[in-house]
Amino acid sequence: xxxxxxxQGQPIPITSLSLEQLSNLKQQFEEEAQTLxxxxxxxxxxxxxxxxxxxxxxxxxxxxxxxxxxxxxxxSLYVKGKLTNVEAVMIxxxxxxxxxxxxxxxxxxxxxxxxxxxxxxEKLQQALLTKRKNLEAIIGVMQEKMAQQPQ
Length: 151
What we know:
By secondary structure, the protein is an alpha+beta fold. It has one domain (about 20-145): Helix Hairpins, CATH 1.10.287.370. It is built from 2 helices and 6 strands, in the order E-E-H-E-E-E-E-H.
């Protein structure tokens, strides 16, 4: 574990930093860990939305054609509707763009996106774990330095 501030590419051992420098470094790592945790939570939320979409697609069968449903207009406002074409669905591909696909194509799209979200979540989880380990190392050095200071 080294701290920034050395010559180009030369890491500085954290044990050689002052308490003030360690405190600043600790604050930086805490902020980065919070940002990573927030990003991870957003990815988990997106993953859950894709799982919900998979469930909805699985429920969309030829037998459901003509069935009455409640269609969401907002997260808390629904309107009665009737399924008239279960052979095509609209997929939100981002920034207000939608494409029409068959349920099978939509399932493949959702599976790809879900895999991507899970892969990125794993990477973020690893980065967060590393940040937290580095933070613990900084706190440990800070505690040692404070214990060594004369009372």
